[in-house]
Amino acid sequence: MHKGYDLRNLAPYACSEATSKGRLHPEADPVHRTQYQRDRDRIIHSAAFRRLEYKTQVFVNHEGDLFRTRLTHSLEVSQIARSIARELHLHEDLAETIAIAHDLGHAPFGHAGQDALNRCMKEYGGFEHNMQSLRVVDELEEKYAEFPGLNLSFESREGILKHCSPKDARKLGTLGQRFLDKNQPSLEAQSCDLADEIAYNNHDIDDGVRYGLITIEQLLETRLFREQHEVVMQKYPKISSNCLIHEVIRRMISRMVVDLIDTSRYQIEKENFSHPDEPRQLEKYTVSFSDDMKQQTLELKRFLMKNLYRHYRVQRMTTKAEKVLSALFEAFINDLQILPPDALAHCNQLKDKIGDNGIARGVSDYIAGMTDRYAIVEYERIFNPRQLSFANLIP
Ligand code: MG
Asked: Which residues does 102 contact at the CB level (< 8 Å), separation at least 6?
């Protein structure tokens, strides 16, 4: 075991190398790093991680340089998850790993892309971004001579697979078992899941206000925003609008994180866990908000759904994204010869491995791996008759 990590801070219920369920392909222990640091480093060096920079969170990133992308979202989740993990004496490296990997399987164009691809894949086993994140780290990243994927440790893979249908779970062996037994993931994974929620609720407000899709007046409808807005206005009555939104949001994040840590710490003490498997065996999460905060976050989510995610400008992008992805899928599946050679070879390999659905799965992997801008360029190349023929020769 690696000696450098300060184990004095690690609680008996935290994941650790001592209780780890290991990697699918056994490897020599890392030198000067923990096992989970190794996982994190492998993700940072992966192509899928770099692609997150050009993938939409909610807003297509070429529409504004300051919008969150999947990359900056993942970094915000990591920052929040690490704060939670450190306070609860959990394994911070593992929390960071899960956070930066949690969105690796997202298709281009955010949830619109996922929905479109799922519809296209309906007859071939469907498309789900969590399962796809696992495919990325288990199979699709091709970098190592000795194993497919990144060969991450069980605890990292467990955290990446947040949801899973019983049908998919049965195919996944040990990793899928918890969905069949209705058990929970590690406390580190639970922390990341809630950190994700804290991050997107808050940064979507920030992006929404910055681009004029929602206003501060509207946001005052929600208690979480209103209370912190009052605090800021009382302290700084002449504050500029740019500082105002930031001062409110940073207080909202802090309120949510503090509530989460206090509530979870109380639960952990009550349960008196002595091993990381104990919280896994419970029927529900140990890491959670207080009931009052749950209500407030629910109110905020409803507000964002109504006023932001269904805003006509966001909706236009959604419709466009669905068209682009559906058209690409149909074009490829009907004429495999227009796929680039690597993607075609991948489809054929999958056909040999899993049968007829392999071709569709290969096309879905190719599309899911695209960044927003790459998907748009591919669409242009295939469907725009004005695209000069030589442009098709440029890779
Ligand atoms: Mg996320």
From this structure: 74, 77, 133, 159, 160, 162, 192, 196
